[in-house]
């Protein structure tokens, strides 16, 4: 720890202050603030047949917003939306990428996912989702409060409604009693049913009784009766191990009377039933109702401007999973729930629930040609947060032979004279990556630039959109690139930056045209230094002076007009 502090102190002591100024010819990039979201830029990639990942750069009156969505129809035979647990358990906390890795395997490839329900973080720290949570028709945990719920039926039908009442009872020696909860922290005077889906043990204290039961028949599903046989009775004991093929009834306080009189070898039953109409529910994920029959609801928790995650359905049954970054000024501010609802409505969503947001907001996807998924959003904590559960989209189709080529990037914008490398990878008919051994052959519209044999496109002097084509082994693919001749803004990522004395740094600058990011080679920009802080060359490489305690400015200009 002492060494880290010395390093930081030295860095701050020797640091040089650098400021970035806008180019002299910068113009107003966008219209005056509009009450509705203004889309500045967008991309769309097909990650499976008829399944699309989209990102949007939006502008709200508050500022910029970075939005990620995936759209799919749950009736697609190649797809399945599954409930993501923490390595098969509801207890604890885990990042969405780790949850996805647990389920990802041949024949079940994760192609997208978002974080899910709010979860127990501050009350007992169990990480158990707050609302009703179901996967594969199994009741993974019961809710601790009144929430709304997203329900996905086995036929792909989706519903958004209040959590339905679950009647859960246990019958012992002819006497029927209510089960307080399934797979939740045991509080006083409660009877809890723990299953192998909860954790490796019940996580309870010794102030209660626990009965270990062998499962003879049935599952914790709607409409089922479980036949159970007493295997072990543990008086004044807690933290009983959980195992497959067994469940544990845990009682505290007045609920201990329910288990009195049981002996090893006794058989009992447990019953679970929702009201009629819930026979085919496969997945349940809880949150707060956000859009109801096309109407954006007001005062939806959690209030405030935050990163957001939500799920909704369009009128045609298409499901939209969305994440909006936040708490990153100048990159993505975050939104109110009312703004989230309006953005989703503008995308065509008619029913939706708001899921856990803030630092929990996470969006993952496997992009075309890539072998695995990755996190695409920028979490507000700076790193991915451990959360309570997730919704994961699976491509169930078996991997096949290469059917086409996908060009990466599929679309990009570049400043005239800029070099942009393209890549191509093979995918099969259902979007899985496939092997490719042949040599790629590239071509581009010569009116807008040239492309070499390695796929590097160099933009010409004419503005317009060029088609990029690639072929190999009888397969083909295409992409596009827009050549831009004018910029409206230049931005340094940091208004102020500290650099070690004597260090060499390649400067980064964001080039924009009306809010759209344009790739621009540093050599196409003009650079200069104000103050005795060092030098910057034509490629934007800054070499700091060896003297400490200096401050000054680095200025960048597009070179399309004279410096002031």
TrEMBL record:
It comes from the Bacteria. The keyword Nucleotide-binding does not apply. Residues 1-24 form the signal peptide. Residues 242-393 form the Phosphodiester glycosidase domain. Pfam families: NAGPA. Keywords: Signal. InterPro entries: NAGPA (IPR018711). The keyword 4Fe-4S does not apply. PANTHER family: N-ACETYLGLUCOSAMINE-1-PHOSPHODIESTER ALPHA-N-ACETYLGLUCOSAMINIDASE (PTHR40446). This is Phosphodiester glycosidase domain-containing protein. It comes from Paenibacillus cisolokensis.
């Amino acid at each position: 720890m002492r060494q880290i502090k010395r390093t930081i102190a030295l860095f701050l002591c020797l640091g040089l202050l650098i400021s970035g100024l806008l180019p002299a010819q910068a113009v107003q990039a966008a219209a005056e603030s509009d009450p509705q979201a203004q889309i500045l830029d967008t991309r769309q990639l097909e990650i499976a047949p008829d399944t699309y990942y989209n990102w949007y750069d939006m502008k709200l009156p508050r500022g910029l917003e970075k939005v990620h969505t995936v759209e799919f129809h749950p009736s697609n035979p190649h797809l399945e939306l599954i409930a993501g647990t923490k390595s098969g358990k509801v207890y604890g906390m885990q990042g969405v990428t780790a949850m996805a890795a647990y389920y990802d395997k041949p024949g079940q490839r994760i192609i997208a996912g978002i974080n899910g329900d709010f979860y127990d973080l501050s009350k007992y720290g169990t990480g158990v989702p707050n609302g009703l949570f179901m996967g594969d028709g199994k009741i993974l945990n019961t809710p601790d409060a009144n929430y709304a719920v997203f329900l996905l039926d086995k036929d792909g039908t989706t519903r958004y409604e209040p959590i339905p009442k679950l009647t859960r009872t246990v019958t012992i020696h002819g006497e029927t009693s209510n089960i307080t909860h399934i797979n939740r922290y045991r509080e006083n005077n409660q009877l809890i049913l723990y299953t192998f889906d909860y954790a490796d043990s019940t996580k309870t204290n010794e102030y209660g009784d626990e009965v270990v039961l062998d499962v003879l028949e049935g599952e914790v599903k709607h409409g089922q009766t479980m036949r159970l046989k007493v295997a072990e009775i543990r008086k004044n004991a807690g933290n009983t191990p959980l195992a497959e093929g067994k469940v544990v009834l845990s009682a505290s306080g007045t609920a201990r009377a329910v288990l009195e009189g049981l002996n090893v070898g006794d058989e009992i039953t447990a019953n679970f039933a929702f009201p009629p109409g819930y026979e085919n529910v496969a997945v349940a994920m809880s949150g707060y109702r956000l859009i109801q029959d096309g109407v954006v609801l007001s005062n939806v928790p959690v209030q405030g401007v935050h990163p957001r995650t939500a799920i909704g359905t369009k009128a045609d049954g298409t499901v939209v999973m969305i994440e909006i970054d936040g708490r990153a000024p100048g990159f993505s501010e975050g939104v109110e729930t009312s703004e989230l609802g309006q953005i989703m409505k503008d995308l065509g969503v008619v029913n939706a629930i708001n899921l856990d947001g803030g630092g929990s907001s996470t969006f993952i996807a496997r992009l075309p040609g890539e072998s695995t998924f990755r996190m695409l959003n920028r979490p507000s904590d700076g790193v991915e947060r451990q959360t309570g559960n997730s919704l994961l989209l699976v491509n169930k189709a078996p991997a096949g032979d290469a059917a086409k080529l996908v060009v990466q990037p599929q679309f990009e914008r570049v400043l005239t004279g800029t070099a942009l490398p393209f890549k191509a990878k093979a995918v099969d008919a259902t979007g899985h990556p496939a092997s490719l051994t042949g040599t790629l052959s590239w071509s581009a519209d010569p009116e807008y630039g040239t492309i070499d044999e390695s796929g590097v496109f160099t933009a010409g002097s004419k503005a317009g959109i060029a088609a990029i084509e690639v072929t190999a082994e009888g397969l083909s693919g295409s992409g596009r690139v827009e050549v831009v001749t004018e910029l409206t803004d230049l931005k340094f990522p940091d208004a102020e930056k500290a650099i070690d004395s004597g260090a060499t740094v390649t400067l980064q600058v964001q080039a924009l045209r009306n809010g759209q990011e344009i790739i621009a080679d540093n050599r196409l920009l003009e650079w200069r230094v104000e103050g005795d802080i060092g030098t910057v060359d034509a490629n934007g490489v800054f070499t700091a002076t060896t003297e400490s305690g200096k401050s000054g400015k680095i200025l960048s200009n597009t070179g399309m007009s004279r410096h002031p």
